[in-house]
Amino acid sequence: MDSMRERFAPVVTRLLDEDPRVAVVLAEIGLAGFEEALRRHPDRVINVGIREQLLIGAAAGLALTGLRPVVHTFASFLVERPFEQIKLDLGHQDAGAVLVSAAASFDWPAGGFTHMSPGDVALLDTLDGWTVHVPGHPDEAATLLRHAVAAGDDKVYVRLSEQANAQAQPVDGSRFHPVRQGRAGVVVAVGPLLDPVLAATEGLDVTVLYATTVRPFDAAALRRATDTAGTDVVLVEPYLAGTSTSAANDALAHLPHRVLGLGVGRRELRRYGSVDEHVRAHGLDARTLRERIGGFLDVREGLRVRAQV
């Protein structure tokens, strides 16, 4: 199976051919994938070099002329380094763009902490009006990229990862998708963490919702799930733990409820290691997830251990 990032350039190249509004803005990273597109559309494939602030500024300028810029580099260079430009050049000027990241939270451990961005979604959450897609499979990435480009002049972030689920799920760019029904609680699995969550909850009497679009947060789907599964909720996100707990709390503000946010911890892991080692260190492997989900929801092998209070 090819990766999400390997799908990125072919999908966007086709969009360049199909839509004269689409432009691509790069900062060296990913340029090789657009060599043919650059020959066909030299005025709409732009490489600004290793200048991430300019990357966003140029995209905003293109948007203000009526183009639909697609902007790509590693997440830490796309969201964290040029955050002021995202805030002002895009947000303050009401200019839309599609930001497409690579490397996710820790997809390239050998790159060190400079190439890790577990806080990207939380950081964008401080700004108004962003749609955030977190695909869990290359097919989903292709679909969500098309959704993002077609979203008028909106501000959209598409978070690509080397980690992926074995099978694609239906995605529509807005709603959470129920993949398992239960009565002892709701687990929301985001993007590439669906497979670990399904393995972790095997045999447990819980509802599992699959989220690939996390902003706007699908409060209606969460409320529907709690009608039959109770109001204990576990969020399992591939970025900073707790990023969506406030959104879940807001969705259930009219009900007594509990929310547990699982994800990447704040403590920096200073050894390179492998992706799998980082997954285990942050407690995102199936065994640890089962312990934490089961303990919070008081369930084991389909049974509620004690009555919900």
TrEMBL record:
InterPro entries: PDH/Transketolase (IPR051157), THDP-binding (IPR029061), Transketo_C/PFOR_II (IPR009014), Transketolase-like_Pyr-bd (IPR005475). It comes from the Bacteria. Residues 2-167 form the Transketolase-like pyrimidine-binding domain. Pfam families: Transket_pyr (PF02779). One of its GO terms (molecular function) is magnesium ion binding. PANTHER family: PYRUVATE DEHYDROGENASE E1 COMPONENT (PTHR43825). This is Transketolase. It comes from Streptomyces apricus. The lineage of its organism: Bacteria, Bacillati, Actinomycetota, Actinomycetes, Kitasatosporales.
